[in-house]
User: Fold this.
Amino acid sequence: MRCPTALIAAVLALSLPLLGAESPKEMDEREAKEAAVEDASSDRALMEQELVGTIKLNPVKDGEPLPKVLGTFTTATKSFQIKLLSDQLYGDLKKQDNKTTTVFGKLRNAGKYLVITRVGPSQAAEPPREKRSRRGM
Assistant:
């Protein structure tokens, strides 16, 4: 009596992940559709944003093409998976690996992905230096 019960439980446990699984091709198509809808939207939140956080890249072997998701970007409140707008940005990201930095990019797929458009210092204006007489009062 115990063997059929255990067998049924094992079959159910193995088949449950297969019910909702998507193939990589289907996931890419779905992500492309969502990105197209977001691009067509005029919502200001979907425009390029400046974010400060820590970049953690997944290891990539030399000579291999870059994967679609390169690693994670973690801010003080949220974490995003990193995608790049162009492969030329990978060198800039690699220099900032495991460091806190400023990136500019667009959030995609309801905030799951951060598509990085550029890496670097903030473009915000620095406050003017205080002008003082060097002779003192």
About this structure: The mean pLDDT is 78.
